[in-house]
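Researcher: Please generate the 3D structure of the following complex. Treat every line as part of one assembly.
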Amino acid sequence: MLSRVADSLYWLGRYVERAENLARMVEVSRQEALESFNRRKQSDVWRAVIYATLVGDELKEEQEKALEADPAYYIALSPLNPTSIAACIASARENARAVRDQLSEEMWLELNAIHLFLSSEKAHDRYRNNPESLFRQIIRFSIIFQGLSQSTIRHDEGWQFSRLGRYVERADKTSRMLDTLTFSEDAPSSAELLAVLRSCSAFTAYRAQYRNDVSLRNVAAFLFFSPDFPRSIRFSFSRIDTALLKISGTRPGDFSNEAERLAGRALARVNFTPIDQLLENGLHEEIDAVQEQLNEIGQSIFEQYVLLPSEIRRAIRTEGLQSGRLQQQQQQKTK
Amino acid sequence: MFQDYQTDGFFDEMFPKEGGPAFPHYRQVEEVIGGFTREKFLEKRAQTESAFLEQGVTFTVYGENNQGTERIFPFDLIPRVIPADEWQVIEDGLTQRIIALNLFLNDIYHDAKIIKDGVIPEDVVKTAAHYSPLMEGFEVPRDIYMHICGSDLIRDDQGKYLVLEDNGRCPSGASYVLENREAMKRAFPKLYQSLGVRPVANYPSLLRKTLEHLSPRQTGVPVAVLLTPGIYNSAYFEHSFLARAMGIEIVEGRDLIASDGYVYMRTTSGLVQVDVIYRRIDDDFIDPLAFRKDSLLGVPGIMDAYLKGNVVLANAVGTGVADDKVTYAYVPDMIKYYLDQDPILENVPTYLAWREKDRQHILGNLKELVVKSANESGGYGMLMGPTSSKKEREEFAAKIKANPRDFVAQPVVSLSRHPTVCGEGIEGRHVDLRPYVLYGEDIEIIPGGLTRVALNKGSLVVNSSQGGGSKDTWVL
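Model: Done. Output below.
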């Protein structure tokens, strides 16, 4: 398959997953903030979710202000936020538009519909009148989209790339949520622990395993190591590993390129590290290591499948995107 | 719905006389659509429009700040109907025309007999913006230059079909023909079925066949790709649609590599050789080594591979010289010269500003003429004499004097009108017709084409960028 197509499918998977995770995190924080009467406490709640959701550059003053005024709105819809949920969906759709032949008609319709909705005034109205239903709708979209991906297209190479994107993103978000518990010197309260579980949609699954014994140790063990909870870091690494091996046709336990080697090693580490060891090393440090591994894996996937071998890479020009975009527009001006 | 319809003295596609019955081939349309209440009909239209939006059947309009807005191409639910005998004439005329245009291209890039015999002045050919010296002496595969052509037809006040222009570079719009048809089948299934409309759905497979016919490697399945400028191009929907419908890869310039005279696409499992490129990028941008150096869309070295015969471009490079608006004026002469036939479809009379006599006529009659710049398309760079301001006419007069080669003028042809749903009911709007001609092993013309409608009252400009919409075209 075309390298660019593989890349777009990977990012399509990532953006859809990211939108879902952001929506869940914001919704949980909103509920939690409602419980906190103390204004200071409220800003703590948001500080955590902002860390977990925002990526990249420092905020400009107007962004800072908008974020402070209404954090949930900022993360979800604010035009000032280039990484809002609406922006994630727009990016997902842009990638999808470039690879429509890889998607089923149903998948495209769902994605296009949520994009049209989020970029319309209706979404802003909904946020004002019934924010909960807005976030539920975004989560539901992602679930439907992934379900359609599961059941309406071939599980071929391209499918593996979008799965790869999904699980890299999921591991990233779960680890970031878990990391919010390490911000404070004090041990996290049980409300905070529950909020993290809910943000990972893990509350019910967790309770089935640990009953009502909610502790940092158990929450960390569950979100890090659960072999069968689909949002745990271990589960995500195992899916990343499988997808990579399927793409190259390498047998399990082996590797044929750097991405596979890194993914296999990361998986072995979460498979075989006991929780006590993890806590001893420091939860925050371990999470940092996970983030580092995800970055390396992402980079080596890119180098393996998207970039060219170095001898031809030199011939490729690297001018800015903007001028390329202008030329695209100018071709055969709407004949 | 049609009770108050007025033809206003124009040639009307549907009604020969105001207040009278429709043409026989429109009777059923009149009956079915006329039976709708206005509300019901508008409801149907809203459903169709939202279906287009949901499916992403859109084009992008770029404003001054470069912010693109995605819009649906306005679609009118009253179909244009063309009876079989009329269509036969169109088909014969277009076939004759594309053969002549290809012979012309072959000739001017080789012996230029038509110039030597004094039929067309050398200047006209060599100064055309899209004449490509690189193509001189090059043998294009199967002697075909223009594989895909979309000629714009209009009808005058007597209902006679005339060719307004030929689009022989990268004509667009075929995807809308197919999408419009799907929309009409959903909206009026019974009407569609009872009329026996000829299908258009096989266009993608004919196009693929046309492309594969050109492949330099005739063993195995040829690798054909569609080369798009990218997702920011206004016609991206069409590119993506056609590639999907043909089952071929849609590639951008950065997906391709030319190396040692061959073209490859970059895939996750290495480089794969490409045989045929259906390119939707203009000549200028296709190869920064051969043409515009600043092109980010093209593939460096692709021309080298093309001229070595290892990859085929469709359409060929340099076909623009044949759809130049000055060359256009000579097409009837070409048909006579190469085929020794009279043109089946006539041209609109055209004055060429570089001819002294014609220029004086143009400058003296700007208010009555349509002035077009020879190398622009999409309704840009045009002066509509009757509706122009004094200032606009003065500007054009100055431009014409400065660059006479770049301008042609035609009398205003009062394009035929077609009943069209407008704000307050059904009104007549001017239409044209763009059929699509494929030149491969055989010449294939899908029965139908894009009927474009100038939606603004009184307007003669049908281009989508300037308030145009479209209709489905039903050939019986």
